[in-house]
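Dear Dr. H.,

I hope your travels went smoothly. While you were away I took the liberty of generating a structure for the chain from your last submission, since the lab meeting agenda had it listed for discussion. I wanted you to have the full record in hand beforehand rather than looking at slides cold. The sequence, exactly as received, is reproduced here:
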Amino acid sequence: MTQSGYWRNLREENRRAILQDYGVINKVWYLFPQGGGPRGSFETFTSLKPNLRSRDLIYLSGVLKEQAVCPVGVLDVTVLGAANQPRQATSGGVPTGGGASWLAPASPVATTPLIRVIEQGWAFENIQFAPVAASACITFDRRETAAIPDSSHGNVRGCYFSAGGATGIGVELIEVKKTNIENCIFEGLAGYAIKNTAGDGIAAVTHFTIKNNKFMQNTNDVLITNGQYGLTVENQFYTVHTAGGTRLSFVGGLNCAALDNSFKDAAADVTIVKGYVAAATGWWRNWTSDTNVPIVTIPA
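The corresponding predicted structure, in token form, is as follows:
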């Protein structure tokens, strides 16, 4: 048996023990918002937060309804949905304790993300999110201050971002480096699926990777303004142009590559006015609904 096969066949607790032995994982925590979790589990991220240390692993099971901020000084934490698919599990509208989702609290703050990441190396996997009002589900924030140090090197994998607030955002990037967003679904977001926002002028968003995601029925999909050295590759954009909407835009960017993405729009509609903007000195090679060869013409 290969080493990778051996690893897949290990029981979860055995894999966890090996990772802890080698120092990859510091400690495992259980976040069960509806209760019923293992001994020592927590019902809110806020109550768990004081216990977190770098390299911890958090298992989320159930429907978490909270707006929170990651702790300062705690790096490389993974929040993992403990479900076979990222989903909200309810019966008659009442959470059953299954699934793995992170939604708005009963009395949300309109301009606050569900989770604001302020330290490096945080990862979110296999969780369903729905944003609040005009805020993001996940905000990676870099200010280089004592309160908000630097959330570069973050990862979002296999998550599902859906509906939510009136102009909500899936993932927001604030001047961070090396953020990877892979294998996610963004559906029905009235704001943006992925968007960067100006912060304190520390730096441009740079070295990001947006790979193999599905974008469908969002008002806007991907807007990275003034980004540098980014890669957007093998994504599927299922929504045709709508008035004023953005599909894939690197406005003001430099050296950003858009490669092997699939657009539902026809080649003639992949234009700047219809929401497609290439970065200066970047690469553009993508597929459209009306051609069987990739188009390399820069949107104009």
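Two observations you may find useful: Residues 61-220 form one domain. The chain is about 5% helix and 35% strand.

With kind regards,
E. W.
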